[in-house]
Automatic annotation (TrEMBL):
<feature type="compositionally biased region" description="Basic and acidic residues">
    <location>
        <begin position="162"/>
        <end position="173"/>
    </location>
</feature>
<feature type="compositionally biased region" description="Acidic residues">
    <location>
        <begin position="140"/>
        <end position="161"/>
    </location>
</feature>
<dbReference type="GO" id="GO:0005730">
    <property type="term" value="C:nucleolus"/>
</dbReference>
<dbReference type="Pfam" id="PF06658">
    <property type="entry name" value="DUF1168"/>
</dbReference>
<feature type="region of interest" description="Disordered">
    <location>
        <begin position="1"/>
        <end position="24"/>
    </location>
</feature>
<feature type="region of interest" description="Disordered">
    <location>
        <begin position="54"/>
        <end position="173"/>
    </location>
</feature>
<dbReference type="GO" id="GO:0004860">
    <property type="term" value="F:protein kinase inhibitor activity"/>
</dbReference>
<protein>
    <recommendedName>
        <fullName>PRKR-interacting protein 1</fullName>
    </recommendedName>
</protein>
<feature type="compositionally biased region" description="Basic and acidic residues">
    <location>
        <begin position="79"/>
        <end position="116"/>
    </location>
</feature>
<dbReference type="GO" id="GO:0003725">
    <property type="term" value="F:double-stranded RNA binding"/>
</dbReference>
<dbReference type="GO" id="GO:0019901">
    <property type="term" value="F:protein kinase binding"/>
</dbReference>
<feature type="compositionally biased region" description="Basic residues">
    <location>
        <begin position="117"/>
        <end position="136"/>
    </location>
</feature>
<dbReference type="InterPro" id="IPR009548">
    <property type="entry name" value="Prkrip1"/>
</dbReference>
Length: 173
């Protein structure tokens, strides 16, 4: 769909050709989506404000001097302008506070995630060492101690030396 002259030639139905990130946190809205929606709203507002004519009411004519009601008209216009400026200022302060809060929140979440990752790594190392220790003790029990070292026989006779066979033969006789 192409935009018409009425909407400024802009495609209001689509997302303007930009890719929008979809939230993966279980139904919440992503910060990227909100920023793009906010930008779209600001563009629309700017376009509307540019196209709306400024109407100044209660203007005095070229030949008129200041009468008794001009002061009250001036005060009313001044009050309206002051109200508009204060609304703009409070709106700016709110947006600034929200942006700062979101920045601090993201920093806190990032720091918490780093701490969690560090503790997770520590737990995994501890678990791995415990597992290695357990397998090491199981291997020590199942395997003979050293194959190169001979253990003495219980009866005092050795199978390897010829002397013990002779002694064993002597005992039989």
């Amino acid at each position: 769909m192409s935009g018409s002259a009425r909407d400024g030639g802009r495609d209001l139905a689509g997302n303007g050709g930009r890719e929008v990130a979809v939230a993966a946190d279980g139904g919440g809205r992503s910060g990227v989506v909100l920023r793009e929606e906010e930008e779209d709203l600001e563009v629309k507002l700017r376009r509307i404000m540019d196209n709306v004519p400024v109407r100044v009411s209660n203007t005095s004519g070229s030949s008129a001097g200041s009468g008794s009601g001009d002061f009250h008209q001036y005060r009313q216009m001044r009050r309206r302008e002051q109200d508009r400026l204060s609304r703009m200022d409070t709106d700016y302060q709110k947006r600034k506070a929200i942006a700062e809060f979101n920045m601090r929140r993201e920093e806190r979440l990032k720091a918490a995630e780093e701490r969690t990752a560090k503790k997770r790594l520590k737990r995994q190392k501890k678990k791995q060492k415990k597992k290695e220790k357990k397998t090491k003790t199981n291997n020590d029990v199942e395997e003979p101690k050293d194959e190169g070292v001979e253990e003495p026989d219980v009866d005092g006779f050795s199978d390897d030396s010829g002397d013990s066979k002779e002694e064993g033969e002597e005992l039989k006789q």
